[in-house]
Amino acid sequence: MKIRISFSSFFKCLLLVCVLACFTQRAEAQQATLIDNIVAKVGGHIILRSELEFQHANAVGQGYKSPNLRCEILRSLVQNKLLLARAEVDSVIVEENTINAELDGRLNQFVAQIGSQEKLEAYYNKPMSEIRNDLRRSLKEQLTVQKMEREISGKMKVTPKEVQQYFNRIPKDSLPYFSTEVEVGQIVKIAQIGTAQKQAAREQLEGIRKRILAGEDFAALARQYSQDPGSGAQGGELGFFKKRELVPEYEAAALKLQPGETSPVIESMFGFHIIQLLERRGEEFNTRHILIKPATAQVDVQLTTHQLDSIRALIMKDTLSFAKAAKDFSDDMATKGNGGMITLPNSPTTYIPVDKLDPSIFFVIDTMQVGSISPPLPYRTEDGKEALRILYLKSKTPPHQANLRDDYQKIAAAALADKRNRAISEWFEKNKDTVFVDIVPDFKTCSLDD
Length: 450
Known about the structure:
This protein is about 50% helix and about 15% strand. It is an alpha+beta fold. A hairpin with a 2-residue loop joins strand 7 and strand 8 (about 285-290).
């Protein structure tokens, strides 16, 4: 069976999980000058040998086997570059606020995973400003490819008959065997910072503002004091933004300023800021800022516990559903819109194998009955905030071989992905000759045909 590598769930997952590891290679693509470093050119885009080898190594590490694996990966990369090229022609654009939101989320996640901004900079031997710029380019490319795929596949759906047909095409000896799986929900409440901590942050920033008004350099003080991991190393400069692309409090304060003027201290969801307007250009404006976040050493855990206890009591009395409570009260943006249900990255279902669960969740639900809700538990968010959460064990499925009765949701998702993959592959076959593609001699034997 031919592997549709370019649009398989594996490679989509690979792009998401490994984007930080490979974005530096992509950033270097524009600087490549030696022809033997370039595997292929697709319109105005290039594919580096290092990019191909990186994805090949990851595919092998994931257990993918094929005598033509490199060629299949190359076809995948060519398809993605063709999507990018056609996106430019068809004016398919990812909005800046979407890129910025994704960029901020990824950076916060990477900093939290590695331990600190300084450790991240040391790992890549680059300042945060360069890491941000490189990641931005990679994310913009990735999000553009995804948007083009959505444009091509449209609002596809699968009928129960199509799901049945897809399942019937799977050889019986190839049906996957699922280990014990669970559906787990959470409602997270971030512990609120006390008044004393907020006042201390405000006073620190007021002191920095006085130094700026007395003549000290804003950018130098931003590099020294700002707690914004993205802009601090750049002297606080954010670059040009349009209206409604920044949080309302920040934008309102910035637009009241004249170029070179410094704002009073303002508060937003991120902390306390002072802002300097650098330039206005039509509907866009460029600012720099210094961000100070209140210390979180003394948050009101007791109040947060009481809030979650009250929510839990309402759910257990059937006064409120867990999904509605998560939507109305949870502070976790990743799950509140999904009825509070936790999912694995890029997974189409809410079912999670128990061996994939975070240990802090596994050891709690291991003693719970299906349908029960835990008491409030200590929790720390990905960006390091102190919080509490309650966990809900919605279901628990014993080990079994895949079947339509127990696994319809997963099989339907796979059938839909297969349908979309075929639509995108058909699009590629029709459009691959509309853009100039040049492959180096080493890979001339790789066919772009499906």
